[in-house]
Specification:
Layout: E1 2-14, E2 26-40, E3 49-65, E4 70-77, H1 79-82, E5 87-94, E6 97-101, E7 107-114, E8 126-134, H2 155-158, E9 163-172, E10 175-182, E11 202-209, E12 215-224, E13 237-250, E14 253-266, E15 271-283, E16 287-300, E17 321-334, E18 337-339, E19 343-352
Length: 354
């Protein structure tokens, strides 16, 4: 059982324009942090544990230049300082952590994009080229941008993040096609950079279709070379994902819903992991109740003397077996209002029986 209570603080600030010219660069700075108390019963080895931590402390910078022909998106994540041992989250795994969500890297994203590189050649088609470090076009949105504070257990099955990438996206009306080449290795610590010697050893592609406003369906595939071994000596992963998302106004409420499925095959099919997830939120006025259900399989690796950590680096394939997690998360948030029009406070409480 997981119980959590938190105060989320989100702020938005506009940076001054550096030049007074009509086409001068513009920039916006924003940030968030969540002060959360989490109680878990039981923890690995038995017993209970409660912790108060600051999670998801992020600062984001967006810069537009040359009449928005050049965009820079950067985000810095300070979880390496605030949760160096990870956030309590039974069922979570990845990057050497188990039953804790790992901290993300300090430079979470740094992506330079050139939108509409074809210019006036075809107004019905828009092509964007991006390079940098960030999210690979695979699977669903970053869980940080979704209503539930607790990351889903399927994070490593449904997203690929913090990779050095080169990406092309083509928008044609209701359809978007994206493809990227990237390095397969995952970070092993918050301060670690992608192994650029491995850039291009992995690929991903995603097709997104928007039949009506506020509704989208995506299907994506990826081939990731040796994600668990930085030098490239580990097994490969083949990944598939599909999801349907709706975000629409219904009466007096904003209604959000997501249904997703993903599959990851490792070691040429020796281990196959599946996940299904449903989550929804209703926002009316200051109130936001939400619910999530997921059923996810995860690898069980050899643990160290710390029951929340697994052995890294891997020596051959260390998967001992597969466990299946069924988790319900029910929560409620209430926005207290705005301070100076830029800082919003939203306390929330949640519970996740499994």
């Amino acid at each position: 059982m997981i119980r959590a209570a938190a105060l989320a603080l989100t702020g938005f600030w506009a940076l001054p324009i550096f030049l007074a010219a009509q086409n001068a660069p513009t920039a916006k700075l924003s940030g968030q942090a969540i002060l959360i108390y989490t109680s878990v019963d039981p923890i690995p080895g038995g017993g209970t544990l409660g912790e108060a931590r600051v999670v998801q402390p992020i600062v984001m910078l967006d810069v537009a230049a040359l009449r928005r022909r050049l965009l820079l998106h950067a985000s810095a994540d300070f979880e390496g300082w605030t949760v160096p041992n990870g956030e309590l989250a039974p069922g979570a795994w990845g990057e050497g952590y188990t039953d804790r969500r790992h901290p993300h890297t300090y430079m979470h994203e740094l992506v330079l994009s050139a939108p509409d590189v074809l210019g006036q050649l075809d107004r019905s088609v828009r092509t964007t080229v991006s390079v940098g470090k960030g999210f690979v076009p695979f699977g669903t949105d970053d869980p940080m941008s979704r209503p539930v504070e607790r990351f889903p257990v399927n994070h490593h099955l449904s997203q690929l993040l913090e990779r050095a990438l080169a990406m092309v996206a083509v928008d044609a009306g209701r359809v978007t096609v994206e493809a990227a080449a990237f390095n397969g290795d995952e970070p092993t610590s918050p301060g670690e950079a992608p192994n650029l010697k491995r850039f291009g050893d992995s690929w991903a592609a995603r097709l997104t279709f928007r039949p009506i406003p506020g509704v989208e369906w995506q299907v994506s595939a990826a081939a990731v070379h040796s994600p668990e071994d930085r030098d490239g000596a580990g097994t490969d992963a083949g990944k598939w994902s599909s999801s349907l998302r709706a975000d629409r106004r219904v009466g007096h409420a904003d209604v959000y819903g997501l249904v997703e499925w993903a599959r990851t095959s490792e070691a040429q099919g020796a281990f196959v992991f599946h996940t299904v997830l449903f989550e929804t939120a209703f926002t009316t006025g200051r109130h936001q109740p939400y619910y999530r259900f997921e059923r996810t399989e995860r690898p069980e690796d050899v643990r160290t003397f710390d029951p929340f950590r697994t052995v890294r680096p891997l020596v051959d394939n260390s998967i001992l077996g597969i466990s299946r997690w069924s988790i319900h998360t029910l929560g409620y948030g209430a926005r207290l209002g705005a301070l100076t029009g830029r800082l919003a406070l939203q306390p929330f409480a949640g519970q996740s029986p499994r």
